[in-house]
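Course assignment 3, question 2. Fill in each field.
Student: A.L.
Task: Predict the tertiary structure for the chain below.
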Amino acid sequence: MKRLVLFLCTLFLTAACAQNKSAADTTLDFQESLNKDFKNPETSPLPKDAIKNFKSLDFFPFSELYVVSAKLTKTPDSKPFEMPTTTQRKPMYKKYGELHFKLNGSNYVLSVFQNLELIQKSEFKNSLFLPFTDLTSGVSSYGGGRYMDIEIPEGDTLILNFNLSYNPYCVYNPKYSCPIPPEENFINTEIKAGIKEGF
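Answer field:
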């Protein structure tokens, strides 16, 4: 849990800095930060014997096509639920809202969630969790889907930068328990942005 919190802190610090940087610069910072965390034995999800051989994660090239504006519709009446994971663990989440956006000529709606335990920590009180799958899942990206972490916007719009999508820790180490993206969060197009499956 400690490693996961450190990892999330890094991601949210990257997101917080994004307001003053271009999407390309933010993406580069994100990738460099992830690689640094994976190389560090204190923060890496990799098994110990894999850390010493680690060089870099594999990313899709940055693309502005996957930086889109989304409208957030809140769902305040949503009830807490147990999120299925890759293990028997079922953490409590709540659907915070829906993101409406256009990508590759089509309209999409994705659900965003809050981890009810995590938002009790002051640094994560405004955090939203976006798990998703797309047409690259199981082809050039992890078959179980990818994640994005975003901040609750001041208004009802925000920028979705899919270049900041990352893999669940269980991709790298089976000891981790990872939320499974819901079927409603399938994007029927290729998201050739963010992280690929391996390294």
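Instructor remarks: The chain has three helices and eight strands. Strands lie at 67-74, 81-82, 92-103, 106-115, 127-134, 146-151, 157-161, 186-187.
Grade: pending
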